[in-house]
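Protocol step 4 of 6.
Sequence for Cellulase family glycosylhydrolase (Mucilaginibacter aquatilis) entered exactly as in the expression construct, tag removed. Do not edit the line below.
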Amino acid sequence: MIKLNRLLLTAMLSAATCLTYAQTAKVISPRWSVDKAAAWQKQTGWVSGANFIPSTAINQLEMWQASTFDVKTIDRELGWAEGIGFNAIRVFLHSLAYEQDAAGFKNRVKQYLDIADKHHIKTIFVFFDDCWNPNPKMGKQPEPKTGIHNSGWAQDPGRHITDAKDFAKLSVYVKDVMTTFGHDKRIMFWDLYNEPGNSKKGNQSLELLQKVFDWARQTEHDQPISVGLWKWDLNELNTMQALNSDIISYHEYEAPEKHLRILQMLRTHGRPMVCTEYMARRNNSLFSNTLPMLKKENVGAINWGLVSGKTNTIYAWDTPIADGSEPQLWFHDVFRKDGTPYKLEEIEEIKKVTGKN
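Step 5 output, structure tokens:
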């Protein structure tokens, strides 16, 4: 708790020197007031759901490219999410899929939203991502590596961006997507950047983080924006994320006792909160102990993983299984590919908390 207090104090003290969107951009959509954010939360209600990629896709590109966009699987698997009472799904986009075919990409986003809406599910879209493989490429995506967690997941944009032309392309992407869907009520909020600073990038990600806040604020949109906090010693990144987000989002894969302490510290920002990643069974972050706690605290709960598939997220981050056999304890995910639950008691617990029973 002392360490968390120190980190929070550091963040607040450095706010005066932290470059914010208002200093660099023409602001069309300024940061929401606390009252506006609270009104959004009241209207939205408690949020529960999962991070989602169809089981037939190894990464964001395989999900969104025209040749592998799998409407049938998306429809079937979101139906399973609806069946256990989930009302929100977090989905990663990818700039290369947009760059290849902007109109087609946006049409596929619309198709996805039509499907999710049919299942009474709202969507949290993610733009950039610093996790896993740093060299994304269009075309046929790699096959999963046996027994390895997220072996084919793609960073976005991947390499460290410094060229103005690259920033210009990414600016067009973010602004076009947010302008196209900025008044779409099926979108819950925009998650601008997943885990900035991951893959040992640290403060190298500050410039892109700053710019994506700038680009988002230069568009008209009805939904809040956020970038989730995830690593508590990335002080400059955490400051920028927390002080420029309309609502506070964060990741926490530890047991409820530690999770609750972090939640209580982040609550000092006075804004609605959504945990956009949790649930790692090995770490005692479970549906049975964490989901009820988050509901009691009125914090949105989005676990990692819905259906076991090509991402291999039933395997732990750092514990590959060389022969690809099923781990005794799944790390993430809720359903098998045929729709049967990994653990029936988990399904009953989720339905109890979401009110689906």
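Step 6, annotate. The two ends are 37 Å apart (CA to CA).
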